[in-house]
Design goal:
about 475 residues; mainly alpha; about 0% strand
Amino acid sequence: MALRHLLTIIHTIYPFSSHHETSDDEEEFKLPSMASLVIMLVMNFLLQVSFFIIVSSANEYAEYLGGNATFSGIVIGIPTGFAVLSLIPLTQYDKGLYKMPLHVSCCFAILGHVAYAVAFRANFLYLILIGRCLTGVSFTMFMYCKRYCTDPQIVGIRRRTTLAGWQVVCQGLGLSLGPFLGGLLYKVGFSNSIFNGYTSPGWIMAGIYAGFWVLVTQYFEDIPQPPPITMMELSLPVAKGVETEPCPNYSSAPATSPPSPIDESFRAQLSLITLSQWGVIICMCWFSMVCFFVLGSWEANLPVFGAATANLRWSPFDAGNFIALGAIICFPFLLANILAARRIQDRKLLAFGATLGLAGLTAFLSILYNHKVNYDSLFGCWCTVALGFNIATAITLSLLSKQLPPQWNGRASIAIQCSNFTGRVTGAIWGGSGVSVGMMNFVGLEIAMVGIGVILFTTLWNKLKTKNG
């Protein structure tokens, strides 16, 4: 029912819902088949739940098996490191398609969650790390979800930020449901060595992925396999006139142009990038990394900080509820962001999200300095940080895809996703270590990183202008 309701909402708001509609008037507003789009969005949601469901109880699970808070931070963040290692070889075999990566993701998600659950019975600390590493291979699908929503074959230029907004909504849902469900399962307990508060998230998610895998096999419709790219197509100039953004005539290449070697075509592409365009690429990659660094560090730090603070003393259930409640508060604003994307430029949404997140970090630094940490003040900071940086994450790839030719979408997706993964893994480790390194230092580093991003997009402001939507 939930999938059908989501499909109905998207179809009602955006009637151009088929990639077969390719007239001149509708080209900029085209969308992929609705069943496939919903599967991609739900996969993004499930991956977010997989990432966050252990956040509430990871510290206690690690300590039970002989680890510590820093190890729990590694357990939370390590999947993204293995996602980076798996991403490059997987893209060599995907042929620009999506169904094979979906199957790989579902398979490794099941294996990873089962290994994470079995660690309790085996009483083996490093098995939870192995399980999370296997789950990390499934997180390669994060990149494919982003690439799917900006793929010029099936998504028009005025729908890319909109679909990125839907991805962030799923991200927010996963951020709220994951910690809440993990904390609830920990509180319920289930006192046996197979299915208990530590292992139940693994068993439940493995079962959900098994069922979802069946739906993927039956209902996902892959895109047509892209034709070979010629040297002439690769050497076309990148879009520069963002006011009008004329669509390059990619079909004008002579039929006699032979395919070029990969290294030669790649050098030809690089030679066309101007200094300002490199600046835009660096700016978007930096913001992708910073947003997920801050979000990942807070999600890993809140259970540890809440348990160590005298006037909080949170249990995993309390920490899960706190993280989830903040995400629920943000949810209506993330839905509003989808509508705003149709009327507001990407660069303005990025500036708004970064400024809002920076305000939350500054407020948290202030309450730490004045020793006024309590539930209400911490909750206000968390909501502001979560909302601001979630909004900013919706912009990076969509903006970049509008500035580069269609053939660049795959490389742009990889660059943005590797930046996301870098932020997630380092952020989770930093969050787990936050109390030990000092919370003032913890927040100070994040403010400095966001400040660098603000300098970047302020300097490149005129270069960041793209079409809305």
